[in-house]
Design brief:
337 residues, alpha/beta, TIM Barrel, 8-stranded parallel beta barrel, 12 helices, 45% helix, globular
């Protein structure tokens, strides 16, 4: 089976005042990935995270849709406990009217932020994480049931696909029970059990929109012309992520040159090692082999690449090389019939 390839873009900002540049790069990257022939281009939702400019995917998707013409666009994802299911259905029905047949709605339960921020996002100061299954059911009704009230207006010209995002057994089982396609965020939880997609497919209950189970594996990808360059970009990202998680970044990212000189201690080594099984890094051939191995191990039908390289040119080149590696792989496969 030939793997489909997609992209998750996180609007990477290199400093606190670089959001405008990061968002413009996202629009340029969407056009580039469309030109390269990627299946879909999703954007994430993060809050109080200075190095990620994408705090409102629904707003960014409107701009991405206008900047592209054929690639599927979507949220990876909307953090549903923060919002009203009715409002989410309304927003994505509007997007589906702007860009018919191109919009995916991915939802997740995680806060996409620290708990103080989650409390600030909740209208009553009480995040509704425990109500996520009920919210998912209500959102499905608003999106797909013409009899649901209040009426969602405008109605989408065709049903908006609803995706379940997650990295735990709870999300896999909920996706299966609701008959939804599933996206496993390995880049978020590098220790996610390789049996999760199998769990999802085993318990899958067909729905009107999704008669068969379908799963995407989302992982970090660092592809370059040389392994040395790819590993340098990976190290830069790892260190910047570590510094953010430990409160040492101050909203500023290390450059690749600074990362190369950074004194690695036991904590840094342990953090980097913990992420090794959740990504692919190296030359095109190396990356393709790593992706195929991870996809097979997890039972994925599609792979979504997150490529958070420091320089925009490196990110563009990574997606170009990745697409080329799989295009060559496809040309080498024997014909069946």
């Amino acid at each position: 089976m030939t793997l489909k390839l997609s992209v998750l873009d996180q609007s990477l900002a290199r400093s606190r005042d670089a959001a405008h540049t990061a968002l413009q790069e996202t629009l340029r990257m969407a056009r580039w990935c469309e030109e390269l022939g990627y299946e879909r281009f999703w954007v994430s939702e993060h809050h109080a995270f200075p190095s990620v400019a994408g705090s409102a995917p629904e707003v960014l998707l409107a701009a991405i849709g206008a900047a592209t013409s054929t690639i599927r666009i979507g949220s990876g994802g909307i953090m549903l406990p923060h919002y009203s299911p009715y409002k989410v259905a309304e927003v994505f029905s509007l997007l589906a009217n702007l860009y018919p047949g191109r919009v995916d709605l991915g939802i997740g339960r995680a806060p996409g932020a620290d708990m103080d921020t989650a409390v600030a996002l909740a209208p009553d100061g009480r995040p509704r994480f425990a109500q996520f299954p009920q919210q998912t059911a209500r959102l499905s009704e608003y999106l797909w049931d013409d009899q649901a009230r209040p009426l969602v207006s405008p109605r989408a010209p065709r049903p908006v696909p609803l995706w379940m995002l997650g990295s735990s057994p709870d999300s896999a089982v909920l996706a299966a029970q609701r008959g939804l396609p599933y996206n496993l965020g390995l880049f978020i939880n590098p220790q996610a059990d390789a049996r999760l997609i199998g769990l999802y497919k085993t318990h899958f209950q067909p729905s009107a929109l999704q008669p068969e189970p379908y799963a995407i594996l989302t992982l970090s990808v660092f592809c370059a012309d040389t392994e040395e360059r790819a590993r340098a970009m990976q190290l830069t990202y790892d260190l910047n992520l570590f510094r953010f998680f430990t409160g040492r970044s101050g909203g500023e990212s290390l450059t690749p040159e600074q990362a190369a000189e950074y004194p690695l201690g036991p904590q840094e080594h342990a953090f980097i090692a913990s992420r090794e099984n959740s990504r692919a890094a190296g030359t095109p051939v190396q990356v393709r082999e790593q992706i195929e191995r991870l996809a097979a191990a997890h039972g994925a039908d599609e792979v979504m690449a997150v490529t958070n390289m420091y320089h925009f040119a490196d990110r563009k080149r990574s997606f170009e090389l990745l697409r080329g590696a799989f295009a060559r792989r496809e040309s080498q496969l024997p014909e069946t019939g």
